[in-house]
């Protein structure tokens, strides 16, 4: 069966948002173009790394001598998006992700693949690197312009940072219902 590609070339909206309370939040990458909306679940660490790498790509482009692309150093105010997730229907839980740059369209490209269960593989001689299934049923492909990419990275960092506060003594997250601090021994 061919892979179903959820492709967004010039999306109206690309955001990371969460559902649930800090400490038990589910992170979603949500993309919308017109009436088409795709939401994929992924881990907080994936969200943080994605924002970091998007900014790295944009910063490298800014520093590139002779760069023909106009890359903003900060988020353009008109692209700030602080609205909530729209109706969430999880398409899949993300396993592997890829990130790149398309110079033909001057866009940052995100690829996301569903998490695969390597144990379900009947052929023990074939291994799936990092959970990527070459025969995946579906994938998400998002291309976004540099201004939208900068806004995406900023919002994602803010969403990741909005979790549970850290204990000043032990450095571990504190839950709303209490925290047992385990101080390191000297």
CATH topology: Secreted effector protein pipB2 fold
**Domain count:** 1
Q: Oligomer, anyone? A: single chain
Rg (CA only): 19 Å
- Which class do the helix and strand fractions yield? alpha/beta
Count, helices = 2
Record field, number of beta strands: 7
General shape: globular
Biggest β-sheet description: 7 strands, mixed
Strand percentage lies at 25-35%
SSE pattern, N- to C-terminal: EEEEHEEEH
Q: Major sheet: order of its strands? A: 1-7-6-5-4-3-2
Helix content: 10-25%
Q: Would you tell me the overall average pLDDT?
A: 85
Low-confidence stretches: 119-132
How do you describe this structure in short?
The protein has 186 residues and is α/β, with parallel strands linked by helices. The chain has helices spanning 44-63, 146-161; strands at 4-8, 13-19, 26-33, 36-42, 90-102, 107-114, 138-145.
